[in-house]
Structures are given as C-alpha cells and as structure tokens.
Amino acid sequence: MGLQGKSTLTENGNRDWKTLDKDLNRLTRLEEASMYTARPLVGVGISLVFVSFAAVAAAIFAGGEPQSIALVVAAAFGAYMALNIGANDVANNMGPAVGAKALSLLGAIAIAAVFESAGALLAGGDVVSTISKGIIDPSALSNAAVFVRAMMAALLAASIWVNMATWIGAPVSTTHSVVGGVMGAGIVAAGVGTVNWSTMGAIAASWVISPLLGGIIAAAMLAFIKWRVIYVEDKIAAARTWVPVLIGVMSAAFATYLALKGLKKVVSIDFTTALAIGAVTGIALGLVSVPLVRRQSRGLENRNRSLKSLFSAPLVVSAALLSFAHGANDVANAVGPLAAIAYVNQSSAVAGEVSIPLWVMLIGALGISFGLVLFGPKLIGMVGSQITKLNPMRAYCVALSAAVTVIAASWLGLPVSSTHIAVGGVFGVGFFREWYTERRARKLMSERPVSQRMPGQERARRKLVRRSHFMTIIAAWVITVPAAALLSAACFLLLRAIGF
User: Fold this and answer.
1) Is 129 helix (H, G, I), strand (E, B) or coil?
2) Are 423 and 438 in contact (CB under 8 A)?
3) Using CA of residue 422, residue 425, residue 429, residue 434, what is the dihedral sign?
4) From the CB of residue 444, how many other CB atoms can be counted at a distance below 10 Å?
5) Residue 209 CA to chain centroid, in angstroms?
6) Tens digit of pLDDT for each residue in 151-165?
7) Residue 369: which pLDDT band, with cuts at 50, 70 and 90?
8) Do the beta carbons of residue 286 and residue 437 sit within 8 Å?
9) Are 175 and 417 within 8 A, CB to CB?
10) CA-to-CA distance for 3 and 9, rounded, in angstroms?
11) Distance between CA atoms of 219 and 215, rounded to whole angstroms?
C-alpha cells in the first residue's frame, strides 16, 4: 500500500507539474502578447519625452523674447517632424541592405543612427532657405507673426502627412511634404500669387524623373552584372575581374555624391571638382580592392550563392554613406522652418536665408535617430523585402543608382527626390527581373521541339513586384504635395483661430 500510495503521489505530482507548465506557458504567451501590444506605446512615450525635451530646449534658448511661446511650440513641431523623417525616409537607405541580408535589422539601425547624426551635425546645411527653396516669395510674408504661423503650419502639416504615410507603409519624400506644407500655408496667408509656380512645376516633374532615372540605372547595372558575372561559365573568375571595377565605380559615385550633397558646410565644391574627387577616389579604391576580392574569393564554389558574399561588404559601406549624405541633406526638412522661426524670434524680421543654430541642429539629428530606432523597422521591411526580393547584387544596384542618379540630375539641372530614386531603383530591379525571367522562359520554350509544346496553353507570367505596394506608393507620391498643402492650410487657419 505504501508503495502504491507513493506511486500515486508521484503520478499526481507529475500531473501537477504538467499543469503548472501549461499555466506558465499560458502566462508566457500572455506576457509576450502584452509586450507586443505595448511596444508601440513605448515608442510613443519616448517620442513624447523627446518632443518635450525639444520644447524645453527652445524655452531655454528663447531668452524670454516676445514670441518665445511660438518658438517653443515650433520646436515641438520640428522634433515631431524629425521623428517622422527617421521613421520614413531613412528606410530608403537601409532597406535594401536589410532585405538582401547583408545587414541585420539591429545592425542597420545602429549604422544609420550613427551616420545620419554625423551627417546632420558635421555636414548639415549651414544656410537654409527658410522659404523652402523658393516656393513662396518672402516679401509676401513680411509680417513676422504671419510668417511664424505659416512656418509652424508647414512643419505640423508635413509631420502629420509623413506620419500617415508611415502608418500605411508608403515611403514618401519628406522634401515634397515640406514643400507642400509651405505652399499651402503661403496660399492661405498671402494668396495664390505668392507661389512660385515654375518651381512647383519642376518639383512635379521630379515625381516622374526621379523614380524613372533610379529604376533605369539600377536595372542597367543589374543587367551588366548578369551579363558579365552571373551568367558566365566561370563566375568566380569573372567576379575577380569585375567586382573591383564595380567597387571603383561605387566609390567614385559616392565620393562625388558626398562632395556635392554632404560637404557643403565644410568646403564649397563645384561640380567639376566633385567629379575629379570621385574619379581619383574610385581608381584608388578599385585598385585596393583587387587583392582583397582575390583573397575573399579563394575556395568559393562556382555558383551564384558564392557571389553574394563578394557584394555584401560594398553594400554595407554604401548604406552607411547614403545615411551620412541623407542626414546632411535632409535634416533641413525638419529644422529649416524651425531655424527661420528662431531667427524671427531673435530679430523680429523675416529673412530669406538664416543660419541654423546648433541646438536646432541637435533636435533634427537626435529626432531622426530616435524616429529610426522607434518606428523605422516597418518601412525598412517594406523597402527591403516586401516590394520585390533582393539579394546583395540587386541591392548593390539600388544603392549605386541612388548616387549615380543624383549626380546625373545635378549635371542636367533636374530636380530629384532621394526617396523616389531609391524606391524607384527597387522597382527597376524588380521589373527588370520580371522582364528577364519572361524572356528566358520564352527562349527555352522556343527551343523545345514542337511536339513537346502544349497547344492552346498560355504560360502565366511570373510577377516579381508586388503590385499592391507599387500602386500604394505611386498614389502616395502623387498626392504628397497637395495633401500636405491642404493639411497646412487647415493648420494655418487653426493656429490663427487659437491666437498663434
């Protein structure tokens, strides 16, 4: 009996432990679900703390000026805009590298946060056109109070629109958002005649020019890589020849790109000098990479998977350089209007161009980094893996097209958007893959004997670009300026109604 009772107790004990394990598993799953649900709230909470920090910083630097309250509110709007730029715009630089698995999501966020901040602080625009690149006539807003209200409305409207675009998963141009915001506020404040419509026409043209150029260049690069490296008998030997050349081309493109876009504050460089810097850098790094590629390619199998490792390191470097240039170039979208308001608060006068104070630049740089860390993964995933499948070679083509397109556009005097170029490059790679796959399939079909072909049966074409995302992104691009303008007009009227 004793033995039987002990056995029963053991069985009951095991049953109890199993029940406890099940209960703990339920608690673990419940805890994981609660953490997943609370994660967005954590991001919102940290964002509110950062926005409050920006407002306090503005209050400290305002020095009790008559319009200091407006500056404090504008600093909060600027911080909100910087967060949204980090959440939306930075994905265009890091998405391809993450989608190609050359970088982990955590690694991409860390690299982007460092290089975006460095670009903003070290090479960010020292002088920014406060009327957003000539969209409206500064003389039409000569009244300081009206000017401050218009800049605040533009900042708030652009922030709201970029936030909405991030929520639906559409990478949009933050520059176009600010342009639309300034235009809408300017029209309500001073009438339709204050808008420079020729500049607006050039911006509208960039909606088409930017993605087309980016897509064509990315597709052309991928076609070259397929022709000279992938579809040859000895892939490794071809890679040893051409990968250093491609690294040299990438180095030349990025050196020129950074000289044109990222180093304006450090030194003034004209286009010819930038090209010369790029050429020298490209030749030097191309030669340096020859022994490195040879060493890295030793022992690799003659297959496409082996080639991916040779493109991973250049892709990571290109993503970091794109982030640096983006931080230098686009931080003004967050803090340009804020710098203008700070200038008016200090001098009570409206200026066409102002210097950006250090504390304003810090708000922009930190905001972009916080926005990327807290909310960036959604758009990084969208650009990197949900439009089309990327590998290091395809992602390399996207990154290179971003730099080359900006250089070509600068030479031709065409307005372009870095967001549209990068996403257009992803589309270009995807649609080229569709066309190339279809072409090869038709060729293989034509080589079959007639007896092996099935009459009346049509082969379904493989779609390698997700059409729903394509249409969503194109629609968001088209309506960005008018949507931001309408939001800005409403914000201007609301700010006027409450006495700002």
Assistant:
1) strand
2) no
3) positive
4) 9
5) 18
6) 899 999 999 999 999
7) confident
8) no
9) yes
10) 10
11) 6
- The answer to whether the CB of 389 falls within 8 A of the CB of 148 is no
- 3-class secondary-structure state, position 453: coil
Which residue would you say has higher pLDDT here, 293 or 345? 293
Site of tokens 């990478």: 171
CA distances from 249 to 281, 396, 427, 437 (A): 9, 12, 22, 27
Alpha-carbon span 397 to 496, nearest angstrom? 48
Model confidence, pTM: 0.82
Cβ(179)–Cβ(199) below 8 Å: no
b/e map of 60-83 (b: 16 or more CB within 10 Å)? ebbeebebeebbbbbbbbbbbbbb
CB 91 within 8 A of CB 317: no
CA distance 462 to 163: 34
CA angle 84, 86, 87 (to 5 degrees): 65
Q: Which residues contact 212 (CB under 8 A, 6 or more apart)?
A: 424
Residue 230: DSSP 8-state = I
pLDDT band at residue 259, thresholds of 50, 70 and 90? confident
**Radius of gyration in angstroms for the set of CA atoms belonging to the chain, rounded to a whole number:** 27
Q: Are 93 and 319 in contact (CB under 8 A)?
A: yes
What is the DSSP secondary structure assignment for residue 354, as one 8-state letter?
Answer: E
Contact (Cβ atoms closer than 8 angstroms) between residue 429 and residue 137: no
Q: Are 124 and 265 in contact (CB under 8 A)?
A: yes
What is the enclosing helix (H) or strand (E) of 385? none
Structure tokens at 477: 């691009």
In tens, the pLDDT along 392-427 reads 999 999 988 888 887 777 777 666 777 888 899 999
Cα torsion angle, 421, 115, 177, 356, sign: negative
- Name residue, tokens 């300081």: 144
Specify the DSSP element, H or E, that contains 127: strand 127-129
Q: What are the residue ranges of helices labelled H in 226-352?
A: 235-261, 271-297, 304-347
pLDDT in tens, 329-352: 777 777 778 887 877 777 666 655
In the block, tokens 């982990």 appear at 104
What's the CA angle centered on 368, arms 207 and 124, to 5 degrees? 80
The amino acid at residue 56 is V
